[in-house]
Amino acid sequence: MASDLQKTTVAVILIASFLAYTCFLYMSLPIKSYATSNACIEGKKTWQNYNCAACHQVYGLGGYLGPDLTNVYSKRGPQYIQAFISNGTNVMPNFHLSNNEQENLIAYFKNIDSSGKSDPKTFFVHNNGTIEQ
Ligand code: HEC
Is 114 left (phi over 0), alpha (psi -120 to 50) or beta? Predict the structure, then answer.
């Protein structure tokens, strides 16, 4: 049967390992900060006001009627997006957005596009559980 000293030693080693690993993980997280313009912030509000997430996902979160739009900016380009949101299609409503709202939405798409990829198949998973894109 283990003595109290042995139990305390094991507990101290476990707690120290937990703390060291936690510090290591948080220090090695690939967190970057992205500057956001006013247009981008307004674009996010427009996105929320018109409830675009009812049909679209950003980083996989949202409705599934329309495609994920996280990387639509690099995939399609601003002219394509503008044409799409100013006209709508058979399945996507035309919201009659003002020019300003359209430009803000495009700034929002540009910003989220630069923050990463939404397709998990393109991620590289490290042994410590963090991912690289
Ligand atoms: C009622 C559901 C619905 C809502 C709400 C909606 N969309 Fe869509 N959207 C769609 C569908 C469906 C498609 C794909 C349509 C197609 O290919 O004809 C689409 C396509 C798009 C595309 C083109 C994506 C691509 O890769 O081709 C953009 C950009 C877009 N939507 C932006 C928006 C924005 C911005 C809003 C909010 C103002 C919005 N959508 C709201 C259904 C919706």
Answer: alpha
